[in-house]
Amino acid sequence: MTHWRRRWQARRGDGRAIPDRLWARVVADLPCLQALDGNEQARLRDLCAAFLARKEFSGAHGLVVDDRMALLVAAQACLPLRHRGLSALAWYDDFVGIVLHPDEVVAPRRTRDEAGVVHEYDEALAGEAMQGGPIVLAWPRVLGSAPGATGIGHNLVIHEFAHAIDLHGKPLGQPADGCPLLPAGFLGLSAAAARQHWHTVLTEAHATHRQRVALHERFGAPPPWLDAYGAESLAEFFAVACEAYCVDRERLAEAHADLVALLDAFFARPTAPGDTR
């Protein structure tokens, strides 16, 4: 990747640094990019060039990361930011490294239950975002959905980078909580009022989602389209909502209209009368 990294660094934020054939191949690989108009694709391409100039990719267990693999990750990571522009890349400034694994990652876990008993176990992960990085992704899942997934609103890369957005600006050691650092003047509110509004909308949508998941699991009701994993916590709900928002905003709006309006404002999506795309 040395040759193209040099070009990306020399032309930071200039999408022309990405070869046309390489860009066309990545767009062909990602249906969520094919739905963008020409202006959106151009903005996304510029974002990708700037993103690639700032990040360092590595492959684990002998996996060789080539330009296409790096750009596939960059395009999905930058997709939510396309309306906010290059300044939004600051949300990813807390880390540099991105590690691709040839398969799921086995991570050791240690938890203490309410009785004080410590439990140690291994957990298979498709991806993970940590304060300070790196972002870890299982390469087979960069293009595909989770095995057995019932919905179509899945995107591992967006999910993990949503966690990075959530963690940005938080004190060291504070976990993701679904409430990212909001832009100044968000929705014309004071910082405190904006955060309270965000928490209220997110919490209500999360409660609705948990109820739908419970009805499906306990009583056989139809499964919600939104990934059931979002019921785990507000942090996971935010990440699941972000991936669904970028993959199929209209479908998410059918289930969570207030949440989509919140994400529209957060990601600075322009709206016009009658615009539902």
TrEMBL record:
<dbReference type="InterPro" id="IPR024079">
    <property type="entry name" value="MetalloPept_cat_dom_sf"/>
</dbReference>
<dbReference type="InterPro" id="IPR042252">
    <property type="entry name" value="MtfA_N"/>
</dbReference>
<dbReference type="Pfam" id="PF06167">
    <property type="entry name" value="Peptidase_M90"/>
</dbReference>
<dbReference type="GO" id="GO:0005829">
    <property type="term" value="C:cytosol"/>
</dbReference>
<dbReference type="GO" id="GO:0004177">
    <property type="term" value="F:aminopeptidase activity"/>
</dbReference>
<dbReference type="InterPro" id="IPR010384">
    <property type="entry name" value="MtfA_fam"/>
</dbReference>
<protein>
    <recommendedName>
        <fullName>Protein MtfA</fullName>
    </recommendedName>
</protein>
<dbReference type="GO" id="GO:0008237">
    <property type="term" value="F:metallopeptidase activity"/>
</dbReference>
